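Module 6 notes. Inverse folding takes a fixed backbone as the condition and produces residue identities as the prediction. Think of it as a translation problem where the source language is geometry and the target language is the twenty amino acids. Below is one complete input and output pair. Work through it position by position during the lab.
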């Protein structure tokens, strides 16, 4: 593996005339790709704009992470054997997972501008988050929808294996949440499915119901359709009439858009179905009156379930109708930072133009902030060190304390090495007030 320098940040020799000590920042990306070269450009610009060192030369080394030529772990090992004091990169899950343990064992700072996989900073057990590698940080800001994060929290952090969904809205929150629960290995009970008067349990109706269930593409649409069909055949309306009655029901539904509207009186049977099917959690969304009644009834009946909700649970109407019954309920809200992928802040765009540099690509903004964070650290940890390798442990320790206003917003790291407010925040209702939970599961 050749270390190809794409730029050197040079400082004059020290006053004593001694040669500057040397260190490098490795950029571990797929070479020859727009995203990889863009990250390298952004890193060099970030270091040039921030680094202030006497007696040191800091090079930027572009390292190809192509695993077809050499295992990523071996590539990481060669970086460890070099004069690198930090690594910026890891645009793929394979690269991150292979390089993390190698860099951590060598106390080598590793920062990704692209990775947003929760397990990479919080470990594999979502119920008990534990940072696996203390040298790993991320400047990427996730674009994950809040409801997907909430589903992950339900199945992981709360350990819910089966979640009942009651959605009376038109914005599809129940569908998004249900799809995410299934993606995370949980079972969904759509207790809010309405009876279709034209349904006789045939295959076409089952498929239609499956598509309307949660819109997931996990390949279980046929199974979902069968489940929905079974629920309808066992429902209150049944198939008691003949074809003419079905046609009349269809006509009534067309004439009255609220004919299939879920009412408060429907809540009891829905919760009974959730209980009978062993639901561990109940998710509510849509209208505040139905959502509030579902929560109040679940609490009144002392159901042993976790309560979760969509945007409705943060409204004044919902909170007024539930009072203290909703305490301990969970929801999620967007993070405060704008997702970094494909972001091009004016500040960085201007910097690229001034330097007549190449486009920084989809991860450039987060890579620039990663370089700024690393440069800030190097300004403090390199001067007292006798060599680049001797500086590594101290540099990693200082990274956790870095705070600055970057081109993607404020850069501050939490206890797991993630950006603060960089993803959806899990919230819990405490005394009628929504507060951030200690962990997003």
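Target side of the pair, the amino acids:
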């Amino acid at each position: 593996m050749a270390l190809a320098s794409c730029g050197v940040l040079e400082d004059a020799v020290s006053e004593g005339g001694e040669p500057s000590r040397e260190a490098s920042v490795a950029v571990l990306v797929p070479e020859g790709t727009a995203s990889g070269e863009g990250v390298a450009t952004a890193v060099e610009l970030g270091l040039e704009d921030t680094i202030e060192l006497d007696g040191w030369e800091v090079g930027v080394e572009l390292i190809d992470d192509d695993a077809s030529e050499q295992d990523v772990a071996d590539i990481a090992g060669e970086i460890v054997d070099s004069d690198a004091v930090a690594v910026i990169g890891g645009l793929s899950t394979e690269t991150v997972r292979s390089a993390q343990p190698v860099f951590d064992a060598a106390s080598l700072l590793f920062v990704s501008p692209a990775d947003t996989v929760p397990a990479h900073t919080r470990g594999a057990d979502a119920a008990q988050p534990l940072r696996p590698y203390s040298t790993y940080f991320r400047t990427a800001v996730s674009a994950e929808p809040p409801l997907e994060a909430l589903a992950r929290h339900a199945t992981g952090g709360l350990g819910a294996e089966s979640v009942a969904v009651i959605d009376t809205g038109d914005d599809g929150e129940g569908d998004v949440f249900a799809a995410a629960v299934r993606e995370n290995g949980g079972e969904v009970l759509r207790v809010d499915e309405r009876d279709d008067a034209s349904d006789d349990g045939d295959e076409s109706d089952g498929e239609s119901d499956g598509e309307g269930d949660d819109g997931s593409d996990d390949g279980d649409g046929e199974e979902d359709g069968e489940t929905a069909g079974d629920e309808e055949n066992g429902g209150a309306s049944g198939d008691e009439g003949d074809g003419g009655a079905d046609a009349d029901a269809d006509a009534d539904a067309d004439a009255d858009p609220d004919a299939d509207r879920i009412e408060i009186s429907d809540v009891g049977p829905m919760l009974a179905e959730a209980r009978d099917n062993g639901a561990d959690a109940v998710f509510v969304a849509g209208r505040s009156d139905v959502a509030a009644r579902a929560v109040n009834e679940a609490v009144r009946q002392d159901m042993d379930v976790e309560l979760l909700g969509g945007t409705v649970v943060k409204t004044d109407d919902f909170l007024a109708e539930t009072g203290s019954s909703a305490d301990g309920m969970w929801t999620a809200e967007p993070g405060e930072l704008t997702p970094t992928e494909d972001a091009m802040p004016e500040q960085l765009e201007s910097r690229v133009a001034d330097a007549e540099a190449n486009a920084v690509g989809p991860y450039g903004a987060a890579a620039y902030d990663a370089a700024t964070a690393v440069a800030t650290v190097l300004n403090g940890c390199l001067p007292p060190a006798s060599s680049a390798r001797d500086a590594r442990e101290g540099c990693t320790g200082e990274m956790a304390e870095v705070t600055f206003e970057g081109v993607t917003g404020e850069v501050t790291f939490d206890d797991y090495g993630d950006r603060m407010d960089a993803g959806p925040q899990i919230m819990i209702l405490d005394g009628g007030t929504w507060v951030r939970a200690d962990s997003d599961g």
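Reference fact for the lab report: The chain has a mean pLDDT of 82.
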